[in-house]
Design a protein that fits this description.
It is a single chain. The chain is mainly alpha-helical and 413 residues long. The chain has one domain (5-99, 144-388). It is built from 16 helices and no strands. It has helices spanning 5-25, 45-52, 55-70, 76-98, 100-110, 117-124, 149-169, 172-179, 184-205, 216-232, 236-244, 246-272, 277-281, 286-315, 323-348, 354-378. α4 runs antiparallel to α7 (149-169). The longest helix is centred in the last third of the chain and has 30 residues, at 286-315. The chain starts with a helix and ends in a 35-residue tail after the last helix.
């Protein structure tokens, strides 16, 4: 099989950023998380905001591309069972065996539970509701925490696989061909306009919950990028267009980011009283400034995704040392990382190691834990592999080629 090394590499980069982002959640000010250190770092918010505007959208985009690539050689019907197995089995295992340690640490830190982890796990595995506030999701009887990505991806994948035969029967292939050639301008403009609508209309009414049902703003944000990935996956004309516009897309993303972040900084200064609202009202009303900020947000979020795809295709579509191993490791590390972050922080916070050593040690324990568990257990024990999204048997793969397409190791995600 041919291989798209850039998609592999972007996925590895995206999940590496996810680990750093969740580490930052322990220390960022005013953002809720399952565990918070008293050693808060105010500066952490700014890079996290920049990443947060596209980080999960990038994962759904790459997942859509992976699905689009594999559709070239497998039928939708055949993929339904495969994707369900690859997504729902790790989700169920994660909920029952990986995530509970986060809930226990959270409950211990909140003071809502004082017994040991073994006792907590026996109660948790009953899947019965807890008193609200015991830990995040306690009222449901279980929690999937960071694994929310898997049920969302499963739903989007199933919808795509069910819809594709119908779309093909009514001429969807011709429409897709037109969209990726003469109608390409719609792909440049409609998604950010839709996201602008979602930010203005849906976000205030449907705050993000990651509960799947009723999480309409999240669905409005992720479904279009997933569908876009499926659409462009094997369209050479779209990849050529992205490459040709990589500098323009980069300039648009930087412009949107600068305007958005500048207005965010100004908003903080206004809230703190450092700046007077009168000086800005003289230029235009506060509501107009907010609209400019939301427009910049939508522009940045969309063009950053396109720029990442364009530069990835330009610079990363070649064999990299260790990329195959990293591609396989992505799924297990994704399942493990947040539980290890929360557990490491729970251990280290009482030691009061300070603003440098504490986060560095949390990161080191997380990376070492993911590496050792993946390398020594998951890769080597046949029955463990499917629980972390890997095939039961290690596949002997031919040497990868630089050009062509292949769905990477985390095909379901």
């Amino acid at each position: 099989m041919d291989r798209r090394h850039d998609i592999d590499a972007l996925r590895v980069i995206a999940f590496a950023l996810l680990i750093l982002y969740h580490l930052g959640m322990v220390y960022v000010v005013d953002w809720g998380f399952h565990i918070k250190s008293p050693t808060l770092l105010g500066w952490v918010e700014w890079p996290m905001v920049l990443i947060n505007r596209w980080r999960m959208s990038l994962l759904f985009l790459l997942s859509g591309i992976a699905l689009g690539l594999v559709l070239a050689r497998k039928s939708p019907g055949r993929l339904i069972g495969n994707r369900s197995w690859r997504l729902l089995l790790p989700l169920a295992f994660g909920i029952l065996a990986v995530v509970p340690v986060q809930a226990w640490c959270e409950a211990r830190m909140l003071g809502t539970y004082d017994a040991g982890f073994g006792t907590f796990l026996l109660r948790y595995l009953q899947l019965q509701p807890w008193p609200a506030g015991t830990f995040t999701g306690a009222e449901y009887g279980f929690t999937w925490n960071h694994l929310w990505y898997l049920p969302y991806l499963w739903v989007y994948t199933m919808l795509a696989l069910i819809a594709l035969p119908v779309l093909r029967a009514i001429g969807g292939t011709r429409i897709a061909g037109w969209l990726t050639t003469r109608g390409r301008w719609l792909l440049w403009t409609v998604p950010p306009l839709w996201y602008l609508f979602a930010l203005i209309v849906l976000a205030p009414r449907f705050p993000t919950t990651h509960a799947l049902a009723g999480d309409w703003f999240s669905h409005a944000k992720y479904v279009p990028v997933f569908a876009f990935g499926v659409l462009i996956a094997s369209r050479a004309s779209m990849w050529a267009a992205l490459d040709a516009r990589r500098w323009v897309l980069t300039a648009c993303a930087l412009t949107g980011a600068c305007v958005y972040m500048a207005l965010r900084v100004i908003g903080r200064l206004l809230d703190s009283g450092v700046l007077s609202p009168d000086s800005f009202d003289a230029l235009m009303p506060l509501s107009a400034w907010k609209l400019v900020s939301v427009c910049a947000h939508a522009l940045y979020a969309w063009t950053a995704l396109l720029a990442l795809l364009a530069w990835g295709a330009r610079l990363l579509n070649r064999p990299w040392p260790g990329l195959r191993y990293a591609s396989e490791a992505v799924y297990p590390w994704y399942i493990l990382h947040q539980s290890l972050i929360v557990l490491a922080a729970y251990w280290l916070i009482p030691l009061r190691l300070g603003a440098l050593w504490e986060p560095l040690l949390v990161l080191a324990i997380t990376v070492a834990g993911c590496l050792l568990i993946h390398e020594l257990l998951i890769r080597r024990i046949r029955w463990l592999r499917p629980l972390f999204g890997l095939p039961m048997r290690t596949r002997v793969m031919p040497a990868p080629r630089t050009e062509g397409v292949r769905s990477p190791a985390l095909r379901g995600a």
